[in-house]
Design a protein that fits this description.
Strand order of the largest sheet: 3-4-5-6-7-8-9-10
Structural class: alpha/beta
Strand content: 15-25%
Number of strands: 10
Helix content: 25-40%
CATH topology of one domain: TIM Barrel
Largest sheet: 8 strands, parallel
Order of helices and strands: EEEHEHEHEHEHEHEHHEHH
Distance between the termini: 43 Å
Number of helices: 10
Oligomer: single chain
CATH architecture of one domain: Alpha-Beta Barrel
Length: 282
């Protein structure tokens, strides 16, 4: 499968970089399994791979990068600094550790994993990310799980906003206000937990009805919704058939009526923690 994936443009210092709108997530994939999963994803056509220090699988992702025949420059690679390493100097060190595990001298996107308000170090961490971009160790830099007030503080204290805000988004948690804030400030929204697996959204009758009408799976319908609302989306799986199925999003479109039906499912219901309350690793 070689279908090309549309891209979105990210701010990257004085220039820009393109991120594929569909990527492959690796959360909860053990290091011993992630190499095969990433290789399968790359063979399927994915060109964006998302990992993080806390996932414990950067070495396995690095093995896949070395084993694939796809050139490194054709793969968009993301990793993240964990909460316990926040702070200027410790973030610089954490990046070097991640690069060593990944076996590469740069990543395409480096993210602050959580604001971790109890630690109150995300501004200094953001300054470190800007320095890492200046040094060429990250092409673009961004954040995960930041509310509008966290983003505004970065702008107020450093003069620069992230290129990406990776947040929990799915039909039960559309995050309309935050996505609007992101868009108004040239921040690309990237959606994690896109299928809301712990909430059984794929079993929702509205999603099932649209799946029947389109001849697609419920998961494909939900992932297509993410693309059509303008997000980057990063589903993950270790099953080859699911990896391939999740990539099959480019031969159909949801109608306005179908998008409206999915929009009506929003319950402001999270499967993960609220960023204002999540301080693990602080």
């Amino acid at each position: 499968m070689t279908t090309s994936v549309p891209t979105l443009t990210l701010r990257a210092g004085d220039g820009t970089v393109d991120i594929p709108q569909l990527g492959f997530g690796t959360w909860e994939i053990p290091d011993e399994d992630v190499t095969d999963a990433v290789l399968r994803a790359l063979k399927t056509g994915y060109r964006s791979i998302d990992t993080a220090a806390i996932y414990g699988n950067e070495e396995g992702v690095g093995r896949a990068l070395r084993q694939t025949e796809i050139p490194r420059e054709d793969i968009f690679l993301t990793t993240k600094v964990w909460n316990d390493r926040q702070g200027f100097d410790s973030t610089l060190e954490a990046m070097d550790e991640s690069l060593a595990k990944l076996g590469t001298d740069y990543v395409d996107l480096y993210l602050i994993h959580w604001p971790t308000p109890a630690k109150d170090a995300y501004v200094d961490t953001w300054k470190a990310l800007l320095e890492l971009r200046k040094r060429g160790k990250a092409k673009a830099v961004g954040v995960c799980n930041f509310h509008a007030q966290h983003l505004q503080r970065l702008a107020d204290e450093t003069g620069e906003l992230p290129a990406v805000n990776q947040i929990e988004v799915h039909p039960y948690l559309a995050q309309n206000e935050l996505r609007t804030f992101n868009a108004e400030h040239d921040i690309v929204t990237e959606d994690w937990s896109p299928l809301g697996a712990r909430l059984n959204i794929i079993e929702d009758p509205v999603v099932g009805s649209i799946a029947n009408a389109t001849g697609k799976t419920p998961a494909q319908v939900i992932l297509r919704w993410h693309l059509q609302i303008g997000s980057v989306v990063i589903p993950r799986s270790t099953k080859p058939t699911r990896i391939e199925s999740n990539f099959g999003l480019f031969d159909f479109e949801l109608t306005d009526a179908q998008l409206d039906s999915i929009r009506g499912l929003d319950e402001n219901k999270r499967s993960g923690p609220d960023p204002d309350e999540f301080n693990v690793g602080a």
